[in-house]
């Protein structure tokens, strides 16, 4: 429960009472118009830094009240120590996942954190369906064949999604948006989540365990946060319980899958294909221009070279609708806190 925090202004008379200063890290060109527009409408100054928050630039936070972040690289303990020293009052992240944040360090240093939990579940859900369909219809294989003028059909005949069972692991905002889209495709849907959604429960969609899902699903799609309890949830033991030729979709977090075990399961044919928008060692690769460079990651290269593995660089979220919401909601979370002491979308609250 929030009870107060050093430095926020209780007297709501915003701009006049408290000239707040915000600094935003990792700001891309496509986000800038949303920042500028919000800045004008709210008469609040925001320093835009293109680079992610890191050891190299953390000292830029001096003199600011709040940080607007977005990154999958770690928010380390020493960052929170520096935030405390610099008098930072709030870290407002403009994304969902919090697995890269040292939450204890934030608490220890009295830095409250907010996130944007629902910037667009549809963005990730639509991408998930895209990848399921591409895997089932062998688009990578056909694109490769056609690139050297092989227009034959055989042997790459497809199954139909309306004849398949899709297992949705995690029925939060994104998992439910995926289920809504799958409903229109005539697919049999089964779901697992330790917390049942009443609507899905009524429809009898839940199985009792991931193991039950492994036994029944032709496609398994992951939509849960990464935590210390689900590290390598899909490992050799999990793959061995799945149907032969199962397809795996991961738009959640890379650490949910043991990539080496996945390679073995692809080799044996136990797994028939995988679509990975997140990968456990993605940080040095995704969202970097590595054109012409050799990627020094044999596991990544092994997966990427397969014609039944689709790798994308963590782009499920990347739509105009989502990006606009990420920027605007994160800025509103920060200013609401700085003006009124109210936590919108709390991740870490300070007593
Ligand atoms: P959410 O909090 O609304 O839902 C997560 C659900 O997972 C909850 O219902 C929870 O009970 C369930 N869950 C937790 N542990 C589980 C387990 N071991 N097995 C089954 N279910 C479990 O979150 P969301 O908005 O649906 O987002 C899910 C995740 O998607 C985020 O945490 C983030 O890591 C990832 N994400 C990825 C992208 C991308 O661009 N690829 C974008 C946004 C979010
Ligand atoms: C998230 O919102 O958690 C994502 O995975 C998106 C990414 C830009 C950090």
From TrEMBL:
InterPro entries: D-isomer_2_OHA_DH_cat_dom (IPR006139), D-isomer_DH_CS (IPR029753), D-isomer_DH_NAD-bd (IPR006140), D-LDH-like (IPR058205), NAD(P)-bd_dom_sf (IPR036291). Residues 27-347 form the D-isomer specific 2-hydroxyacid dehydrogenase catalytic domain. The keyword Membrane does not apply. Residues 130-316 form the D-isomer specific 2-hydroxyacid dehydrogenase NAD-binding domain. PROSITE patterns: D_2_HYDROXYACID_DH_2 (PS00670), D_2_HYDROXYACID_DH_3 (PS00671). One of its GO terms (molecular function) is D-lactate dehydrogenase (NAD+) activity. It holds the Pfam family 2-Hacid_dh_C. It comes from the Bacteria. Keywords: NAD, Oxidoreductase. Belongs to the D-isomer specific 2-hydroxyacid dehydrogenase family. This is D-lactate dehydrogenase. The lineage of its organism: Bacteria, Bacillati, Bacillota, Bacilli, Lactobacillales.
């Amino acid at each position: 429960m929030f009870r107060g925090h050093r430095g926020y202004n209780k007297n709501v008379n915003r701009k006049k009472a408290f000239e707040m200063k915000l600094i935003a890290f990792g700001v891309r060109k496509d986000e800038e118009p949303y920042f500028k527009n919000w800045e004008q409408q709210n008469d609040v100054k925001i320093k835009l830094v293109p680079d992610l928050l890191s050891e190299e630039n953390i000292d830029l936070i001096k003199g600011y009240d709040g940080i607007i972040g977005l990154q999958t690289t770690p928010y380390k303990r020493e960052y929170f120590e520096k935030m405390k020293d610099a008098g930072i009052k709030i870290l407002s992240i403009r994304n969902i996942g919090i697995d890269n944040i040292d939450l204890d360090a934030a608490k220890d240093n009295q830095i409250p954190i907010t996130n944007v939990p629902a910037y667009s579940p549809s963005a990730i859900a639509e991408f998930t369906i895209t990848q399921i369909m591409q895997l089932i219809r062998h688009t990578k294989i056909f694109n490769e064949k056609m690139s050297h003028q092989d227009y034959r059909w055989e042997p790459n005949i497809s199954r139909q999604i309306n004849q398949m069972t899709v297992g949705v692991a995690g029925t939060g905002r994104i998992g439910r948006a995926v289920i809504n889209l799958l409903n229109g495709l005539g697919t049999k849907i089964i779901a697992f989540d330790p917390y049942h959604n009443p609507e899905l429960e009524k429809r009898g969609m839940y199985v009792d365990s991931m193991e039950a899902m492994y036994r029944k699903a032709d496609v398994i799609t992951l939509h849960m946060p990464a935590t210390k309890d689900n590290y390598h949830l899909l490992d050799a033991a999990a793959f061995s319980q799945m149907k032969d030729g199962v397809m795996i979709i991961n738009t959640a977090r890379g650490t949910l899958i043991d990539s080496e075990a996945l390679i073995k399961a692809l080799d044996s044919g136990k797994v028939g294909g995988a679509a990975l928008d997140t990968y456990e060692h993605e940080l040095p690769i995704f969202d970097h221009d590595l054109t012409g460079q050799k990627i020094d990651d044999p596991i990544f290269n092994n997966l990427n070279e397969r014609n039944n593995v689709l790798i994308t660089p963590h782009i499920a979220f990347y739509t105009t609708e989502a990006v606009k919401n990420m920027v605007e909601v994160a800025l509103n979370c920060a200013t609401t806190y700085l003006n009124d002491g109210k936590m919108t979308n709390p991740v870490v609250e300070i007593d």
